[in-house]
């Protein structure tokens, strides 16, 4: 059995909407930070004694739609490698599933790496990035560590991620406020499709992302955490405006999401540089300079308890591990 570890990534410039549902080609570019605290370990073994794929996540066999997604992905690897064997898949998530904490990114990046190796393929990282994308769009970025750009491309070959700064050498950190880690009611896939098809503001979103990508890459080059945080915050709010403006409108926020946003605004008004971002879920991520960590922990810990605050530094790319 080959086992791979991949870490989640949180988008600073968001991916929200597909141009091609089957190949998972996005409508826009995106840019993310890989995190060291959240990851998935996935082991894969192709065996000639199995009559079906045997998939286990966190000690439980999975069925239904989740199992089909994994089996469809394994079919892609079988097609590329010429293998006809079924696989035993054992995955452990060190991140809550379907809670807006990018569990699918780490899961499919780890699965792509372990399964391709187990099938006898020796893919380079760009090829792994393309492959991981077929399971979950954001997984294309979790192949790499640090700050990563996903080029939207126009087809399977041209849509892949690559690192902007894999070894992050300045003090950016991200803190997750775990507001609710239960499975969300509207999946990212459902939400994206609804926004693309029905939000009157979706054409403007494409233009906003193009501008934000240019500005974000300059802010990273300048190692300007305030500017990185500001762009990420505005980009997240505009993404969530697409959910509110869809038909029917919906939101991933709850009351505590709004409390967290207000708390971060309050901290900033008192001179502490910190910014928020949210993906498809109620949990809030705080972007800040590590020198301000203790002030932020103290303030947010009084509101949400310190046990619900998880601090992450920039994390590594995917790797094969010994289990």
TrEMBL record:
The EC number(s) this enzyme carries: 4.1.1.33
InterPro entries cross-referenced by the UniProt entry: GHMP_kinase_C_sf, Mev_decarb, Mev_diP_decarb, MVD-like_N, Mvd1_C, Ribosomal_Su5_D2-typ_SF, Ribsml_uS5_D2-typ_fold_subgr
Domain annotation Diphosphomevalonate decarboxylase-like N-terminal: ranges: 6-161
Short name of any one Pfam family annotated for the protein: MDD_C
Ranges in a coiled coil: none
Top EC class for this record: lyase
Transmembrane annotation, as ranges: none
Gene3D superfamilies xref list: 3.30.230.10, GHMP kinase, C-terminal domain (3.30.70.890)
Family: Belongs to the diphosphomevalonate decarboxylase family.
Protein name: diphosphomevalonate decarboxylase
Organism of this sequence: Limosilactobacillus portuensis
């Amino acid at each position: 059995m080959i086992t791979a570890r991949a870490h989640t990534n949180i988008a600073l410039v968001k991916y929200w909407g597909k141009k091609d549902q089957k190949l998972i080609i996005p409508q826009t570019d995106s840019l993310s930070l890989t995190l060291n605290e959240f990851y998935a370990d996935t082991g894969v073994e192709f065996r000639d004694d199995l009559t079906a794929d045997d998939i286990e996540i966190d000690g439980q066999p999975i069925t239904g739609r989740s199992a089909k997604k994994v089996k469809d992905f394994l079919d892609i690897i079988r097609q590329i490698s010429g293998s006809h064997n079924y696989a035993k898949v054992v995955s452990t998530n060190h991140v809550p599933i379907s809670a807006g904490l990018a569990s699918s990114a780490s899961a499919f990046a780890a699965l792509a790496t372990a399964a391709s190796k187990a099938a006898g393929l020796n893919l380079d990282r760009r090829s792994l990035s393309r492959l991981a994308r077929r399971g979950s769009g954001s997984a294309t970025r979790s192949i790499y560590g640090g700050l990563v750009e996903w080029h939207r491309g126009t087809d399977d070959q041209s849509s892949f991620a690559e690192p902007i700064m894999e070894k992050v050498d300045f003090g950016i950190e991200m803190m997750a406020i775990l507001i609710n880690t239960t499975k969300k009611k509207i999946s990212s896939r459902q939400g994206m499709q609804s926004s693309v098809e029905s939000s009157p503001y979706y054409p403007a979103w494409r233009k906003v992302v193009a501008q934000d990508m240019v500005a974000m890459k300059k802010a990273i080059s300048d190692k300007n955490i305030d500017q990185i945080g500001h762009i990420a915050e505005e980009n997240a709010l505009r993404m969530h405006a697409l959910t509110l403006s869809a038909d029917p409108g919906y939101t991933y926020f709850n009351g505590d999401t709004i409390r967290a946003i207000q708390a971060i605004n309050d901290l900033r008004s008192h001179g502490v540089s910190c910014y928020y971002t949210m993906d498809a879920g109620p949990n809030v991520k705080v972007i800040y300079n590590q020198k301000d960590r203790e002030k932020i922990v103290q303030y947010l810990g009084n509101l949400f308890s310190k046990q619900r605050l998880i601090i992450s530094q920039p994390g590594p790319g995917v790797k094969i591990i010994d289990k």
